[in-house]
């Protein structure tokens, strides 16, 4: 029996019901008390003994017992007093009275006092064990029943709490579609009190336009997988009072509903009771979806259609024009010098200017035209159903006039012009992509024609742009295909006639176009950002060549390389140069970097700091094309400059018109500042003779030598060739 009490099977699983029962034996006769305890212990119980009534009270107060075997007649405290103690403390421990007095009064008094059973001395051990087992089993059953009831009550409370605390509107309807239950959420969602909806037909809360769809969901009779799931409906909130003039809100919900049936013995005779439903408020989700949809097709700053929506409308215009054999135009507009506004006044002012330009452009449109922002400062106009090119010209003129007036933003007066490119359907393309592409090409030509003008696309515009695109694509592969080549033009000391250095010049050995001058591809590399990688290649190539000459113990010469503005802007510019020299084992004095005046003035503070770091390391700094930029004495004193290179245009003036004033002034200034002076572009003996008379330090140019390959330059150093030897004595 004990084993059965210790384990109980519930829902097909074995659960531990209780631990080993603890029994308290209370008797003043030691022999009987101890023997009773031993019997209990031998039968798997946990037994304790109390030698009298007072000892029993102490133990009962200290710990819990599953049953008590209590003798009535004890010398100190009578057994009935123990029963009173248990009752007053509210203990529910079952008591079996064990007594030699089997009179009816004793039994009745014991049972009235709270005892659950009466066992007369002397007794058989089996009888005693049976009585104990029955009492414990009955007690455990009572506890389990009480626990089940508590769980059911708690479950009902939880269910009521969960239903009323649910963020969803939960309801039940009767067979006629009238509300029989609504949870508390209905008040915050729809504004109705419970009593206002109970007994009302569901149509009282359904938006009028959704009646047809609602009748299938609110009258749902199906269950299981066939029941209604995730049906979107609109519900009417309770109308506000007429005094404030407000209208009732519409709530978008996602509805799930199933039919309710009673469960009789015969499952085929189930009676339909009504519908159970849950309505989830998805108004915020719908708003979010609408916002996402709007953002997917509109520019967030201006609210204009974006590129995706513009292309969609463009394709629609193509379909309509094809059916009706009409013409329409695509205009690409790009604001001139907008980057200057962003860079100088900040993006906040730039955004305000974009908004103001957008407003004025709107005023130039006809009904049915589409203005879109394609990104940055670029806009597109779709002009459907135009009668001729004069319409495009009229709108372009309107745009120009509208934007000619100043904009007043952030207490500043700003001006904004646009360059416009136009393509026509079907003459310039029959697809959306081709029309946008050709309008962009026309826009590019408007930019090259001085900006603030409108250009119509024609096929001749494709050729130079196509060549540029092809050149750009080829340049991106030039490095990886080893098509770049370094050439070296000697720099000669005029007094000694010896080679003192070379300028490292880059050429592009194109597989189809042949040798391409840097004047053709360096501006493109600057524009596309590829100049940084090319500059690193140039530095590494120059260091490798210096190492070759050093290893072969040739006369020491310096090697000059040109530095682009983008290279100077790199945060690791100085470290990269110093690391390259260190990796090739070169002295810093062997390298000279050439920079332009414009580069110096672009970011004075950072440029000064970087040049000072290079100069402190022993690297020489040269100003290339001197005289064509700022030519300020102030920066010559402020910057760590070692060499000035006179621009070849001033050297050419010596031969062309005999103008030597600029060259004379530059030479005098360099000598006064104790700077090394190099004249570049020396091509005639007259130029050479003049520079000798003026005691110019060094020269370079085609009169002495054209740029040489690495092998030819090495040969010149090996054979100690002095290019000025042929002019000696002249």
TrEMBL record:
GO terms for biological process: cellular response to nitric oxide; phosphorelay signal transduction system; regulation of DNA-templated transcription. It catalyses: 3',3'-c-di-GMP + H2O = 5'-phosphoguanylyl(3'->5')guanosine + H(+). The keyword Phosphoprotein applies. SMART domains: EAL, GGDEF, PAS, REC. The modification 4-aspartylphosphate is found at residue 71. One of its GO terms (molecular function) is cyclic-guanylate-specific phosphodiesterase activity. CDD domains: EAL, GGDEF, PAS. Residues 155-200 form the PAS domain. This is Diguanylate cyclase/phosphodiesterase. It holds the Pfam family PAS. Residues 22-136 form the Response regulatory domain.
